[in-house]
Specification:
Length: 438
């Protein structure tokens, strides 16, 4: 009898302790389901290029594009996402391949692999849609560059693109057809033409994402923002960039990935920025993309394996539309709540200095009061899970409204490689959220 009473008492104590304990994590199999093993595999975003528009892109004409990818995670199995999100008609990809870059547009012999879609080499993507490839067995190290080649059939109209990219894309001449199986770079020409400085920016056509199979213990840090996150060094004139950062992969997300790798931490980085993007409104110039709020779910929160969102956006809202502090606070609140609803940790960044910038209408001195008011709110709020003081990391202590000269990319708005390195160094690695697994 005593044993029965004791057992009952212990059961009651156990029930009481269980009631006080935090609720079990829901993993998709129902509340209280066991966590997946950390050694099991899941898809992880290793590279992303957010599409912004198609209107200002080069319409393909029966030709092949060869796109370089610098994955921010290693892999032995990968999948590739192509997009026709902003196209005006269906687009047919006749064939696609991937291989390790040897140099320029040349592929290392023995590494070329076909990319298939539902088992087929040919796929047609409807207007407004994306397509995800079958898994491809290809082994590459973190930061080892890949070349993805896509043959575009016929003349489908303007190509969905990530505009104003700080990297080279190669293409064959129109009407030259399928060169996806070619290992050499012969017949491919680079855009932009790197021998010219300043240089017109090159887009990344069609290819928007690369995922790898990785241990569930690895998470993706997603960076959301505009050209300051995308890695623009300087705009000499609108759409005319400094050539210094082309193919340098010097953006702060790239350099954050360098820090993460050096520290041996289990994270990749996916850059969901679009140059010229605004948080609150769709861009007047289409290449700058839809508003950050409207694309947040599709570009950032839906990235495979995402655990942390770094949000740095708003300087263009002030500079292009005179956005107020209150309007931006309302936008930040919506973004943070949406990310939290998806289980992501949110780190919000302060807006960086822009005194001296000459871009119209309200960059520079005209936008400074709003920028300061927004930063005061960011530093004092408790909605996000942490603050990254990018402003403090790059400003000139003698003139806090200006970028430190060593970090200035040349237009007093964007940054040199050293400036982006300082931004990456400001991210507290201890604040990055590790995936839940057991």
């Amino acid at each position: 009898m005593r044993r029965v009473v004791l057992a009952s008492a212990l059961a009651l104590v156990g029930s009481a302790l269980a009631a006080l304990a935090p609720a079990a994590v829901t993993t998709g199999a129902g509340a209280g389901a066991a966590l997946p093993s950390c050694s099991s595999k899941a898809w992880l975003s290793a590279w992303y290029a957010a599409p912004g528009d198609a209107l200002l892109s080069q319409p393909p004409l029966e030709q092949t594009f060869r796109i370089q990818v610098r994955p921010l995670a290693q892999g032995t199995v990968a999948r590739f996402r192509l997009s026709n999100r902003f196209g005006i008609a269906p687009v047919t990809f006749g064939h696609a391949t991937v291989g390790l870059q040897q140099s320029g547009a040349a592929i290392t012999p023995g590494t070329l692999r076909p990319i298939t879609f539902g088992g087929a080499t040919r796929t047609t993507v409807p207007k407004g849609a994306d397509v995800l490839s079958d898994p491809v067995r290809i082994t590459f190290a973190r930061f080892q560059r890949l070349l993805v080649s896509v043959h575009v059939v016929g003349a489908p109209g303007p190509a969905t693109q990530h505009g104003i990219a700080e990297q080279t894309t190669w293409q064959t001449l129109p009407l030259t057809g399928n060169h996806t199986a070619q290992l050499t770079g012969q017949g491919f020409f680079p855009t932009p033409l790197l021998k010219t400085a300043p240089t017109l920016p090159q887009s990344i056509p069609y290819l928007t994402g690369v995922d790898v199979l990785a241990p569930r213990s690895t998470g993706a840090v997603v960076t959301m923002g505009d050209s300051i996150t995308d890695g623009t060094q300087a705009e000499v004139l609108p759409f005319v960039l400094s050539a210094a950062n082309i193919d340098a992969f010097a953006s702060y997300p790239d350099q954050l990935a360098n820090r993460i790798a050096a520290a041996g931490l289990p994270f990749s980085v996916a850059n969901a920025a679009i140059s010229g993007n605004m948080l609150l409104k769709d861009a007047i110039v289409p290449v700058f993309g839809p508003s950050g709020l409207s694309r947040l779910g599709r570009d950032a929160l839906s990235r495979s394996g995402a655990t942390t969102l770094i949000l740095l956006e708003g300087i263009n809202d002030i500079g292009q539309t005179y956005a107020s502090r209150d309007a931006l606070v309302a936008g930040y609140t919506r973004a943070i709540e949406a990310a939290h609803a998806r289980g992501l940790r949110v780190l919000i960044g302060t807006l960086t200095p822009m005194a001296g910038a000459l871009q119209p209408p309200a960059y520079g001195a005209l936008g400074e009061p709003a920028r300061l008011a927004v930063n005061t709110w960011i530093r004092g709020q408790h909605l996000a899970d942490g603050v990254i003081d990018f402003d403090k990391a790059v400003r000139d202590p003698a003139q806090p409204s200006r970028i430190l000269p060593a970090y200035d990319g040349g237009d007093h708005l964007h940054f040199s490689a050293a400036g982006y390195r300082a931004m990456a160094a400001a991210v507290p690695l201890s604040k990055l959220k590790r995936p839940l697994c057991g």
